[in-house]
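Appendix B: complex inputs.
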Amino acid sequence: MKAASLFNFISQFNVQVALNPELIFEKNGRFFLLNDLIKPLVNRDFFYAGVYLGKAKAGKFFPSFILLSLLAKEGQANRIVIDRKSAWLFICGRDVLRKSIVRIHGQAKKGTNTLVLNEFGECLGFGRILGKVTGLILGNEIAIRNVSDIGDFLRRER
Amino acid sequence: MSGKDFFIDRYQQLGWKYRETKLRQTIRINETNAKGKNLVDRLEHLGVSLEKIPFLKSGYWVQSSKVSVGATAEYLLGFYSIQEAAAQIPVSLFTRLKGKFVLDASAAPGGKTVQLANLMENTGIIVALDVEKRRLSALSNHLERCHVRNTLVYLLDARLSSNLKFKFHRILIDAPCSGNFASDPVWFKNRTLKDVERNSALQRQILTKAVECLADDGELIYSTCSLEPEEDELNIDWAIKNLKLSIEEISCHGEKGLTEIFGTKLDPLVERCKRLWPGETQGFFVCKLKKRGVVL
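Resulting structure:
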């Protein structure tokens, strides 16, 4: 089942999200979550429907930013809040330094994925934890490698 | 029949004296997404100075900005869209949108689709059509950025909308049109009366097919950003005579629709349409139509 890549991706954030598999539609590797109103109206020719969840390509899953913000609302999800300056740099595609981390929720183990939030708790994207995220306040080493950020909306237009 | 002098003379005959227009950048707050976010304060903190547009519920002119308004985190999070002031009017004219079944007949790039979804608070369904695949990608990005959840998008010519076999409570025809000089600096150089006539014919075809999909008590908003009466008042005069439609009273920014075009008298009710000559906004035309004589 192609949706396995979607559920595998979600599980990497230490969270269970109740997505009804019967309402998930896949088209050309892109996944959409429909609702009971939209589902009966969808035919195979649709271009976009309901909530776009992301796309699977070559065995890898690329989440939408709607999906990431849904995950960020789950209390148990791996989330890291970063400071204002770092938030701006993150949406410009930059990694997160240890000293920029303000708060940590959920797991923060090396090699796991974490959602990256700004000071308002808004999800800016996600990254992979490279090493220790706590400790020295002046830590200038990279703690989170940027994997995907909302600046992508601008990059897509180029 | 083309060129700046030709068109300026036409505008003069229609009662408007041409003047150059410089449009101000405009944003529309996506109220559903931005609820509780103190967005205006946040933008001002970033160095974006805003002025509320008096005739729009959620529209602001950007007076000055130290940052690119189309590249802030708040924009990328879908809290606001960049949308010209007049273009915010058509969707605002619908009544009771929540839970409705809505057709956006020429949807890309999606500014009005997102506005619809916001006013519907993501309830009901929007069926959004466009004829160009490239433009649908822009529309999809827009829907994702603004967290729209209630839209079904098809690559489909609006003239084939009746093939969907749906009946819509609300239909928006923001028709493909000739545009106007205020939003296109080379407009006078590129446009001819033939373009206008070709677009007018296309708009009549779209209107005809859309009316077939309109529920008996439904509302149809027709708009263009063309100043040319062939695409505006003359089309609506034709529609009420040929498609059994009535023109509803609307209350919004703009002047009354013209009822005499180059010596031809139109149905007096065409004055219920609104025409916006370029100035505070770009040039625009909008009206609300309903099926005539339907006993509910």
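The mean pLDDT of chain A is 91.
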